[in-house]
Amino acid sequence: MDLSGAFTAMWADLPAIFSMLIVGAAGLVVILMEAFQNRDPRIPWLTAGAFGLAMGWEAFQLGTAPDTAFFEQLRTGGYAAYINLLILGAGLFTTLVSPPYLRRLNRNFGEVYALLLFATVGMIMLGTSNTLISVFVGLETMSVCLYIMAGLLREDEGGIESGFKYFVLGAFSTGFLLYGIALMYGTTGTMHLPEMAGAFPDGVPLLFWAGVGLVIVGFGFKVSAAPFHMWTPDVYQGAPTTLTGYMSTASKASAFAALILILFFALPSAQASLVLAVLALITMAVGNVMALRQANVKRMLAYSSIAHAGYMFVALASGTTAGYSGALFYLLVYTVMNLGAFGVLALLEWDGMAGRKQTLSSLAGMGLERPVLGASMAVFMFSLIGFPPFGGFIGKYYIFAPAVSAGLTWLVIIGLLFSAMSGYYYLRVIYVLYMQTAADVAEADRAPEGGFAQPAWLSTAAVALCAVLLLVLGVAFSGVVDVTEMLFIQADAMAQTP
Amino acid sequence: MGIVLAVFAGFALALVAPWITGATGRATGWLYSLVPAGITAYLSTFIAPVAAGETMRVAYAWVPGLNVDLSFYVDGLSLFFALLITGIGTLIFIYAGAYLKGHHHLGRFFAYLSMFMAAMVGLVLADNLFTFYIFFELTSFASFVLIGFNHDEAASRRAAWQALLITKAGGLALLAGFLLMEQATGTLQISAILETGEAIRDHGFYTAIVLLVLAGAFTKSAQFPFYFWLPNAMQAPTPVSAYLHSATMVKAGIYVMARFHPVLSGTDLWFWLVGGIGAFTMVLSAWLALQYTDLKGILAYTTIMALGALTMLLGLGTETALKACLVFVLVHAFYKAALFMVAGAIDHGVHERDITKLGGLRSKMPITFGAAVIACLSMAGIPLFFGFIGKEIIYEATLHLDQAALFFTGAALLANVALVASAGLLAIRPFMGPLNDLTSHAHRPDTGLWFGAAVLAVLSLGLGLAPWLLDSAILAPSLSALMGAEATPHLAIWHGFNLPLALSGVTVALGVGTYFAWTPMRQSAPFRALERWLGTGLDNGYDHAINGLLATATAQTNFLQNGYLRRYIATILGTTVAVVGYTFGHFGFEGPVLSFVGIAPYEWILSLLIVGGALATLFLSARIALVAALGISGFSIALTYLMYGAPDLAMTQFLIETLTVILFVLILAALPTLSEVASIGHRLRDGVLAVATGSMFTALMLAVLNQPFENRMGEYYMQYSYSEAQGRNIVNTILVDFRALDTLGEITVLLIAGFGIYTLLRLKRSKTSEKVEASRASEQVEQLS
Known about the structure:
The complex is a heterodimer.
Chain A lengths: L5 H8 L4 H19 L5 H20 L5 E3 L4 E3 L1 H27 L5 H18 L4 H19 L6 H32 L4 H4 L9 H17 L8 H8 L2 H26 L6 H19 L5 H22 L2 H27 L18 H4 L1 H15 L5 H15 L3 H27 L21 H19 L2 H19 L2
Antiparallel strand pairs in A: 1-2
Helix pairs in contact in A: 2-3, 2-5, 3-4, 3-5, 4-5, 4-11, 4-14, 4-19, 5-6, 5-11, 6-7, 6-11, 7-9, 7-10, 10-11, 10-13, 11-13, 11-14, 12-13, 12-18, 13-14, 13-17, 13-18, 14-16, 14-17, 14-19, 14-20, 16-18, 16-19, 17-18, 17-19
Chain B lengths: L1 H23 L3 H5 L1 H11 L2 H5 L4 E8 L4 E7 L1 H24 L6 H20 L3 H19 L6 H32 L4 H4 L12 H15 L8 H4 L5 H10 L3 H9 L1 H4 L3 H22 L5 H22 L2 H32 L15 H15 L5 H14 L5 H24 L18 H19 L5 H13 L15 H18 L1 H6 L1 H36 L4 H23 L13 H19 L3 H21 L3 H24 L9 H27 L5 H14 L4 H9 L1 H26 L1 H13 L6
Helix pairs in contact in B: 1-3, 1-6, 3-5, 5-6, 5-12, 5-17, 5-21, 5-22, 6-7, 7-8, 8-10, 10-13, 12-17, 13-16, 15-16, 15-20, 16-17, 16-20, 17-18, 17-19, 17-21, 17-22, 18-20, 18-21, 19-20, 19-21, 19-23, 20-23, 26-30, 27-28, 28-29, 31-32, 32-33
């Protein structure tokens, strides 16, 4: 490696990580502010500002050609910008809905926002990584922040359990990931993803596949694919709701993005298809079946996010450019609808402790009482089912159609049947929101007068914006789809000409 | 452009209706009906060109990359259904305005209703599988909100949810069918699919496509065994029942089958599945209808009967059968919508729908009575009414079948007998006889409440007298589209004395007999059993199915998601072993040749200590012994490091092992004694898992040894350590020269961590003062917005 021009090259590469710099610097400033004034009210604003600024920057990068930075450690250009926008958007949304909710829990610490910012830095690194090293560093940066966020409710048993389980299992699965990375490096002699596929002129050795298998196990944990999903319900339920929303979307988006990069660049052919298909099948089955019986909405959404990871794997199993771009599109839709759903839940929750009052019954009649939040929740639920004309439907179409083309018809039909099953638990939320009233549910489940977090107009507006966005994505999606497809065509072209 | 407007006009009305309804007052229904009326008028302009053999297609690119268009296609079939939807819609809008007069959610109701109408028009005109599906689902959603319109009643809520779950599940099956259809034909464009001829029938997916599409159609059009949602859906306000659950939405399933008839039909599978289930549904529901005394109950089951008949005719697939299908769609829509409006008018005026409690209403609502009589005569298939023509052609179709003619004719006869009796019940019971306490207080219905029924009655009579009016303008183009070939049908009142006419006579005679035997028959044991098994029985079956599903979910959740961290870890380990094991199995394992020669005794001892320590944890139950056993394993491993030339690694391992033991002992002191000891079974399971995991990693290690090792990095450092970094100790040069930046980073991190710990310690010391501060902070009102 020629390091003579290292310093000039690294200076020149700084714009490539503009978002990471801004977000990371904001995190440091937030910590300082919190040190000087407890719960400085400017902190959420600063955080939101940093996210917004970074998003603005990334929006301009969407159309740029793919490239790499820092000695091919990181990926830049359209693909990276798309993923970054997704992650930063999730961060911005979380920052907007969190203050009223965290205030109610007496947890509106500045550190929460700092952790949010640092986790985002990790996610950006993970989602745009071009080598296994940056995959690992990004993943760990993200995970360590998330472990702390999951256990934020320290006085609450559920919160403690949440943080502890996440940490132990997370550390455990990281071991597998690291082992897999070591094997992949050992067999190819390179950490750079695009170089891996070409490393075997005469046959792929067994060890490489074993490494890929272990990497998939590690990622399976991070994106909560069954049977590595078991931490998900406990952690999602125990963590503060707005942060759960962030965990279930941004971290999944970046982990999936990295997994797609590995599958797309590093694998010589689509031979992982069967493993991924089986993973998809188990994940869809576990998520959908278990969600049926949940009386706690947060837990139900946790299982639902498992089910959606399963749908994503259907797209990955198809192993084609269309499948990957469909998966990218679905990530966007999924992020919007899940963030929104958790956002609504956070604003309609009246006692975050131990998940006691996130029951379905406690939402009875809320649809008419809080029209904007209720209508938004209805949109999220319909979209999660995959009901047209919302984004969820188009998203599902884009992940199932490539799978059919790739000959995975059996998997798609099973997936659609599970989607039909999911109607039961999503529609139940709408049913309770609109068709029941507080009089229909047991006394203990009723929300007390004025017992909710006081939704600031900004939080409500952010939730409503998600709902509108889903409608837009459901009707005028062709632009976004063109972008996601273009990303792979460009990326492919780049892989061809190293 | 006009067609797009025609589709979206309904959506536009849906958007504004909730806001302007307050201002429109009593005229609401009449005013809003201008929208469907306008669409009808616009669509009517297509009748002449379509009759002349033209088809129109409008397409706007939506997602060009996937060939998804927003496209609409006007041919005979789609125009036929579109006109039916908007035409009846006009009358329903007028009726609904009167029926729900003064309802405080009238605006919302009209919003739902016009959304439904728009979705329905979009559905029949859609020329893209994708758009078709979207509109299909929208109709399900509209049906959900309309059935549940009176959501303060538990029965309405249940019915709404049931209808949505069933039609939604069917809808997804339909989507799967569409995906396969796209695979088979290579296009999403419906008009192009219709021209692919044998492509689908010859394709390997044919059976799957038929089953999936039919699953969608049968759930939507209430065929056996899914029909139970339809009677429950009668919880909806009557205008909704009349429009959605009789005249239009339930026909969406029929439309699906009709639309794809040219490419799907003509096989034995289609003939027996569609024809057979249709015939069975038809006969069954016709007789089930006689079990009910609720006006809407009777109407619901006779609607299912009609849907069964239409399905059967589509299954039979001969030219006469298809002609009969189209005629019967019209016949049924005219008389059934009229009868629903009559039932609603009675309900509105008397607040009672039980025919055994009604009577004498002919004097109170004469026009309604007249409309009811005409509609029922048409329903019974009496000559000179439109229904007669419909029934004649059905008999003609079943009689001229190449196979199973007797079976289908018998089924049709059986069903029609019951239908005649139902018609009698509907026309006679509420209106004849003396007035009773209930009916004498009935008030005269508004114009809006009888207007629609009267118009439809006039149509039933007029088309019965002059059926040939439909021949070339309506019937010929739609039949051609349905068959996929040119057709010139002709309708006439009189076909001479022939077998169908005789059958008609027999039908009416038997039907009249059934009418008079109604009360004892209804109360007889076999009929009650029929109702119990196939009426409420299926409904209960639905409950059982849902409950069973939920019970399975509970069992699975309790088994897999038990909350124990150790089981979670066990699952992850097990799966990893499976994944890696699969890889080994799939690609073939290659390890070095193993040899046990020349292993020194102390090496054996160390290995045995490592394995023995691990195994011992399985059998020990005291905590301190467990820790000791693990320690033996750990220290033995450290010793092997030492022996094979990695003193630094051994050092680290020794330190960690020592620290672990100390930490364990510290924690153990604070823990309660073990209250229960794991059973032998658990230990065995854990042991197997441990051995499997260990074997997997051993195998991986062996495979790694087999891999040629490339030591580029090592060589690089050896080569440049002295020349570039001026140092002989390679580890040192790596730390302070080659990776100096990393070291700087590490030191910084350590520094920060140190600060952090110091802060934490300080925090603990001033805990009390911090608590005060925290509570003060929470009182501060921080407003983000």
